[in-house]
Amino acid sequence: MEAVAPTTHIEHGPSLRQRLAARGFDAVTLLVVPAAIFSLLLFVYPFAFGFILSFEPKNGGWLANYQRFFSDSYLYDTIGNTLLLSIPVTLLNLLLAVPISFRVRLMRHQRLLTTILVLPITLGTVLVAEGLLNYLGPQGWFNRTLVTLGIIDQPLRLVHNYWGVFASLVITGFPFTFLLTLSYVTGIDPALEQAAATLGASAWQRFLHIYLPLLMPGFAITFCLSFVQAFSVFPSAVLLGEPAGTTRVISIAAYQAAFEEYDYSMASAVAMIMGFVQLAIVVLVLASRGLFYRGPASGAKG
């Protein structure tokens, strides 16, 4: 009889694709790669380059740019000037957006009203600034109307000062704040409010004890995004403000260092300081939202 050779079974381990999938690297995850490369090239590399460049001053040691900034009141005062514009504007836009969002969500023509309210965002800051110059200027429609009606004798100074920039930032920033606020307000389950009303809670009590705790995470994010947008003000501060006075914001200081003094190292240092100030405010706001948020609730965003 002939001997029959035993059959050999070769066990293959998991393929490379299976091993990657087990670690979370599947086909869907790989779709993030283009976005990661885009972010690296458009954000991370410029930031890293500017950060390194800020420590290479024309004269002095490697901290000379930062020492110059904080030792010159004409430079470091720009931080306060910018905060005095951006924080009140952001708070006002948020305070306006909340009641309007609550009202709009109950209206029949919500899409039409939303389109009207966000229309200024399509105009751009330069066009809004030019419109305010024609409307609020000494010979603008607003002042001429008040003079004609005998309400005032001399035109009010509403442009080329703090209030001109303030008005421009409110007009251009409100649509963005409103859209974010509306998305959070409409994301809360109406059954929560109806249950509270059934138990006898007033409108103010329903807002204070139901809506506000659920909306605080959304308000925090909305504040941060709106604040960053307002903090980077530049065209409005130049066209409607006093670039050498009360509205000399930090972005103007960076522009002058780069394109008037041709000191790109100093301009990078100013940009880094600008970024760190924004980051500090954002971290502070996001950290403080835990004082108000009471946990997840069904039907709520945030």
From TrEMBL:
Q: What is its main location?
A: membrane
Give UniProt keywords alphabetically: Cell membrane, Membrane, Transmembrane, Transmembrane helix, Transport
Protein name as it appears in the record: Carbohydrate ABC transporter membrane protein 1, CUT1 family (TC 3.A.1.1.-)
Belongs to which family? Belongs to the binding-protein-dependent transport system permease family. CysTW subfamily.
Query: Where located?
Result: Cell membrane
**Biological process, per Gene Ontology:** transmembrane transport
Transmembrane ranges, per UniProt, are 27-54, 74-100, 112-136, 162-186, 207-231, 264-287
What residues does the ABC transmembrane type-1 domain cover? Answer: 79-285
Q: Can you supply one Gene Ontology CC term for this chain's record?
A: plasma membrane
Q: Look up and give the organism this protein is from.
A: Microvirga guangxiensis
The record's Gene3D superfamilies line, in alphabetical order, gives: MetI-like
